[in-house]
Fold this protein.
Amino acid sequence: MTRKVRGRRIQSLGSRFFVALSVTLLVVAAAIFVVSGVVGPMIFHAHLAQADLSDPTTVVMHAEEAFQFASTISLAVGIVIAVAVAMLVFGYLASRMNASLSRLESAATSIADGDYAVRLPRLDIGSEFEALGVAFNDMTQRLQTTEETRRRLLSDLAHELRTPIATIQAQVDGIEDGVVTAETSLPVLSSQVARLTRLSEDVVLLSRAEEHALSFEFEVGSVGDLVAETVDSLALRYRGKGVALHLDRRPTPDVVIDRARLGQVIANLLTNALTATAPGGSVHVSVANPDADHVSIEVRDTGIGIAAEQLPHLFERFYRVDQARDRDHGGFGIGLTIARAIVDGHHGRITAASNGPGTGAAFTILLPTVG
Ligand SMILES: Nc1ncnc2c1ncn2[C@@H]1O[C@H](COP(=O)(O)OP(=O)(O)O)[C@@H](O)[C@H]1O
Ligand SMILES: [Mg+2]
């Protein structure tokens, strides 16, 4: 029996055992046949030739003795050959299995010791082992990716924590040295604490998103309603900054959405657009049905725009166009990373477009329609 492993047909371990057993039995049968057919009669003949055939009473005795001797010797030789062949064939199979298992064992030990780069070489001993090797390597690959993501996330996070902590430390030192008063530093301290709190909440979401472990509560609903609610909730902030906010809402079919999560994505796009747009500018939000299979949400602003070389990086975590300025004041550059994970969870797409600095930017979400 053969089995396909990663496109290759490989004989199973069971059929290899079957072949080994058949070969052994054939060799044994041939050995016994040859020994009893060739060696037996020769011994029988030699024995009889020594006897005195003129005396009929000893002829029978010698014939019996010759027969017994010949058959015992043939059987013994046959058994010795059979045992030797069986030991050779099965010893070879066992040593191949041993070698494969010890390769597997040493790879598993390396992984237990934290070395995820190890890969299992081909286990040349049947399709079952081959499939085990492939599954093992897939598992190791996943572990390696998760471990690398975790390590990078931790180092990025440590980097992000440095600024607010340094600011808090400076304020505390200032109070201790009597250079600043508690009252003047209180607003700074509380804004940095708020920043740290936001970071800790976002990081929980981010790490879930990166492990593809975000949970969703899907329902069939109206994207237009959701966008309108989010626009309403941010209207006051827009008015406060003097940026106009317009909503153009076309009739669209219902789609499968997680209202809370998708609402969070739209709120992030609207907040980003507000941050990027100076007073007097405007942001246009539109909900439409560009083709039968999709509903689109577009947030277009007249703000600072994005350079072409920055566009591909916007969705990377902790990425901000103006790292130095935004590290102190702005967000953490996590919003769009989470947004992409949430839109992916809806089987949709999110893209960014801009004609360059000063020309504004547009973010578009495409969601598949039901059916
Ligand atoms: N509408 C926009 N116009 C210009 N730049 C933008 C816009 N939206 C996002 N960006 C850039 O993308 C970066 C990442 O956005 P995001 O992931 O939401 O992080 P955050 O808002 O925390 O900075 C922002 O820091 C900003 O530099
Ligand atoms: Mg943001």
About this structure: DSSP finds eight helices and nine strands in the chain. The longest strand covers residues 282-291. The mean pLDDT is 87. The two ends are 43 Å apart (CA to CA).
